[in-house]
Amino acid sequence: MTTPDRPGGATPPVFPTSLGTSTEDTITLLGRNLATDMIGQVSFGELAYSLMTLHEPTPGQLRLFEAVLVALADHGFTPTAIAARLTYYSAPDALQGALAAGLLGGGSRFLGVTEDTGRFLAETIGSVDGPLPDTDPGWDALAVDAIRRQRAAGRLVPGIGHPVHKHGDPRVPAIQRIARDEGAHGPHLALFAAIGRTHGQVLGRTLPLNGAGICGAALADLGLPIELVRGVALLARCAGLLGQLAEELRAPIGEKVYMLVDRNAEYVPPTR
User: Fold this and answer.
1) Based on CB atoms within 10 Å of each CB, which residue in 44, 72, 124, 247 is the most buried?
2) What is the extent of the structural domain holding 144?
3) How distant, in Å, are the alpha carbons of 135, 218, 237, 244, 262 from that of 253?
4) What value, to the nearest 5°, has the Cα angle with vertex 111 and ends 110 and 115?
5) Cα(207)–Cα(198) distance, rounded to whole angstroms?
6) Would 58 be classed as within a structural domain?
7) Helix axes 226-250, 79-90, angle to 10 degrees
8) H helix count then E strand count, the chain
């Protein structure tokens, strides 16, 4: 078969997708007509979940997923927000650059903890030979073993500790409650809770579970691939960064931050 409108009459390659396609008159997304079956009928959270998993969430799954998005959206003047505001001050003609600058800051200290915790929990659960625990003492024993192995490897236990919420991150009980209410409380959240109960006996000090960690546990229990968990955190933070940039338009601080650092810079001769 040849195609007359192609150079040389060659048959074009086929690129399969289960997401979206367009024709002259329609846009199809996930097998549905975008204009008639989705716009005004599907929430953005439902769409995001469906695009990643290729199936519609249950009402309980959707509530927990959107709770995670809200929990991760914005925390004030974090490094990611400051990076976005300073980039906007430097290049106000390129909003996308400011937004990207904030998103690029999602790493091992901010936002990336969501993925790190989900991965740690998933790997621990995946290493269990036999049935998973069905009691708190069973989960506690698994948590202690996982923490000991993590410490022996010289690695931090992700999901514990917070620079501000020293006595408890308020997002943790909220996410736990929603997951239980919606029947979406699975093994990753159970193991994460056990880590909160037991890490002190291994580490010698007690730290609070943090919101990024419990969001990673919740997303893992929702069945999202671990490789996409950080992407969900970035999706949430994108909304927060847009809010930060909108406020920068209304009440800019970028120049003040820049001048504060620049005018207080002190030259120090390099040591050799």
Assistant:
1) 72
2) 112-222
3) 51, 35, 20, 10, 14
4) 125
5) 10
6) no
7) 50
8) 11, 3
pLDDT digits (tens, 9 = 90+) for 52-89: 999 999 999 999 999 999 999 998 898 999 999 999 99
CA distance 37 to 62: 18
Measured distance CA(92)–CA(205) in Å, rounded? 46
* CA distances to 94, 107, 117, 224, 233 from 64, in Å: 34, 23, 17, 12, 14
Phi and psi of 255, rounded to 5°?
-65, -40
* pLDDT at residue 39 greater than cutoff 60: yes
Hey, what are 271's tokens?
């040591």
Whether residue 30 lies inside any domain: the answer is: no
Longest dimension (CA), the chain: 74
What proportion of the chain, given as a percentage, has pLDDT over 70?
Answer: 97
- Over residues 144-149, mean pLDDT: 96
Is 49 part of a structural domain of the chain? Answer: no
Position 34 scores a pLDDT of: 94
CATH number for the domain spanning 155: value is: 1.10.230.10
- As a whole number of angstroms, the distance between CA 167 and CA 68 comes to 21
Classify residue 130 as exposed, middle or buried by CB count within 10 Å of its CB (0-12, 13-18, 19+). exposed
Q: Is residue 231 part of a domain?
A: no
Which pLDDT belongs to residue 98?
Answer: 96
Query: What are the C-alpha distances in Å from 88 to residues 72, 106, 244, 252, 266?
Result: 22, 18, 10, 10, 26
| Mean pLDDT on 84-108 | 92
Query: What average pLDDT does range 218-246 have in this prediction?
Result: 95
Instruction: Count up the domains in the chain and report the number.
Output: 1
Q: Residues 212, 216, 221, CA angle at the centre, nearest 5°?
A: 150
The structure tokens 């809770």 sit at 193
Q: What is the mean pLDDT of residues 256-267?
A: 94
